[in-house]
């Protein structure tokens, strides 16, 4: 095999390894008659369920068949490199599209905040990190007070506008590493990594005060809405056995119920006395 072909094969194999996430290399076994026969490893007998797609399998086989005898003027090597470049471009395009789709699927279509399913996954991942590293994490649950009155007085389109405005207040009030989301209806959730429950009240009060002092446009009218907020943190579970995102959410929701019960437009921290509280807000 010419030095040109060997260099070209090396470039192709390195690119294929990165593209297909497989360790591929050229080996030089000697045949029985002493002839040199360059092949790709691992084996080219690729399973149908392997990470290789059809184009990848075909290209791997062609590399093995071409590089042994290719010369500097051999157009087949150029063609292989061209096809590999196309595959790399297609793969990058697919990665970007998948990332875009993943981002879209994680967002609430009305408010643009993260949706309930993403928030739950984030709570789960942050709780696991907390249990591994000992760092705290807290959850804030927020519910718009008397939201039904907005819908009844101004219509559901106006209510949707208020939800979008509240979402913007959350974005403006949270830190860059906090994760605000819409939990459902007029209820919102914020995940606060590396934050003890007691320290979360600073963020919660900032949100509550900004909502109370804001006037949201609803057509030609404007409306002021307030929010009740409940807080719970994993530090409140120390010494307990099994902990889970659903338990943390439940405690923040009970604290939210307590805020509603005590007059609304307030922030409450979960404590053990709330354990038996009814959950109807």
What do these coordinates show?
The chain is α+β, with helices and mostly antiparallel strands. It has two domains: 103 residues, no CATH class; 159 residues, Reverse transcriptase/Diguanylate cyclase domain (Alpha-Beta Plaits). It has eight helices and nine strands. A five-stranded mixed β-sheet has the order 4-5-3-8-9, with helices on both faces. Strand 4 and strand 5 form a beta hairpin. Helix 2 runs antiparallel to helix 3 and helix 5 packs across helix 6. The longest helix has 31 residues. About 11% of the residues have low confidence.
Question: CATH superfamily membership of the largest domain, which one?
Answer: Reverse transcriptase/Diguanylate cyclase domain
Q: What gross morphology would you assign?
A: elongated
Overall structural domain count: 2
Range of strand content: 15-25%
Examine the coordinates and then state which fold CATH places here, giving the name of the CATH topology of the largest domain: Alpha-Beta Plaits
- State the name of the first-level CATH class of the largest domain: Alpha Beta
Number of helices: 8
Q: Ends: how far apart? A: 78 Å
- Taking pLDDT < 50 over at least 5 consecutive residues as the criterion, the unreliable ranges are 28-52, 68-73
Order of helices and strands: HEEHHHEHHEEHEEEHE
